[in-house]
Design goal:
about 25% strand, elongated, alpha+beta
Length: about 180
């Protein structure tokens, strides 16, 4: 069945494209949801008159995609999850978890545009997650998966190092005070 897309449809086309799809896909999904209209001379003329507006929206989407790509390429997501001693996760890291982490950073991305390697990450480590943007443009986001135990150990080590540094600084200050007191006498 020949149709004209009213909006962008993933893996099919963009707004204003004329495509041929299976009859059931058009009747059961695209037409009822308003994602497409039947291809007729009247509908084709309507879309022809809106061509300038459609191209303007496409240009805006390309610009938004470019700015989002810059943000995403510079982004590092740290996820802390429960894991065993061997580094195997209890559960897995999925696209929806990555989407939630990005949302907390103020970056809105649809879950279906996020591609997690092997669909679910099941071990602690560093991974690259692919985010599909507008048209064929993609962004690679660095994902660091850590276990809660590793994070607790690291924070304890940092606190110990900070305490040692503070104690060394206090000892140095006390030694300097004692030296100045001795020099005064």
């Amino acid at each position: 069945m020949k149709i004209i897309l009213n909006q962008d449809v993933v893996n099919l086309g963009e707004e204003g494209d004329v495509v041929v799809v299976k009859d059931g896909y058009a009747r059961n999904y695209l037409l009822p949801t308003g994602a497409a209209v039947l291809y007729t001379k009247g509908n084709a003329a309507i879309f022809q008159s809106r061509a300038a507006q459609i191209e303007k929206r496409k240009a805006e989407k390309r610009a938004q995609s470019a700015s989002l790509k810059e943000k995403l390429d510079a982004t590092v997501i740290n996820l802390v999850v429960t894991a065993g001693d061997s580094g195997k996760l209890f559960g897995s890291v999925t696209a929806s978890m990555v989407q939630e982490a990005l949302a907390k950073m103020g970056i809105e991305v649809e879950r279906k545009k996020i591609e997690v390697a092997t669909h679910a990450i099941k071990m602690v480590g560093t991974y690259s997650v692919v985010v599909h943007l507008y048209e064929s443009e993609v962004s690679h986001v660095k994902l660091v998966v850590e276990s809660e135990i590793q994070v607790k150990e690291r924070k304890a080590a940092e606190a110990k190092a900070a305490a040692e540094a503070k104690a060394a600084e206090e000892a140095k200050a006390a030694a300097e005070a004692a030296a100045t007191e001795t020099a005064e006498n």
